[in-house]
């Protein structure tokens, strides 16, 4: 069975072994994400969001906070 890795890694056959042998693979970090740093950019809310809640036994949808 081929190995599966979680992002930001992918399974690369580094040994040249059989493709169906998980021990043939090594986790390798994607080069596009190797030096990636993330800064908080703020809110991405569009202002059109709605929120649904039960109020007095009824489902009520109201505008979300912008």
Descriptive account of the structure:
The protein has 66 residues and is mainly β. It has a two-stranded antiparallel ribbon with strand order 1-2. Strands 3-4 form a two-stranded antiparallel ribbon. A hairpin with a 2-residue loop joins strand 3 (50-55) and strand 4 (58-63). The protein has a domain at 1-32. The termini are far apart. It has strands spanning 9-13, 25-29, 50-55, 58-63.
How would you summarize the topology of this molecule?
Elements: E1 9-13, E2 25-29, E3 50-55, E4 58-63
Antiparallel strand pairs: 1-2, 3-4
Characteristic key phrases:
two-stranded antiparallel ribbon
Radius of gyration over alpha carbons? 23 Å
Estimate percent helicity.
under 10%
Question: What structural class do the secondary elements suggest?
Answer: mainly beta
Low-confidence spans: pLDDT under 50, at least 5 residues?
Answer: none
Task: Summarize model confidence as the mean pLDDT.
Answer: 76
Indicate the overall shape: elongated
Order of helices and strands: EEEE
Strand % is 25-35%
Total DSSP helices: 0
Measured distance between first and last alpha carbons: 48 Å
Q: Main β-sheet: number of strands, strand sense, barrel status? A: 2 strands, antiparallel
Major β-sheet strand ordering: 1-2
Q: What is the number of strand segments?
A: 4
């Amino acid at each position: 069975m081929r190995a599966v890795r979680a992002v930001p890694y992918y399974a690369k056959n580094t040994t040249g072994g059989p493709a169906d042998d998980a021990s043939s693979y090594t986790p390798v970090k994607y080069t596009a994400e190797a030096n990636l740093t993330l800064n908080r950019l703020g809110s991405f809310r569009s202002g059109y969001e709605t929120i649904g809640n039960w109020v007095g036994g009824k489902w009520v949808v109201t505008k979300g906070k912008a």
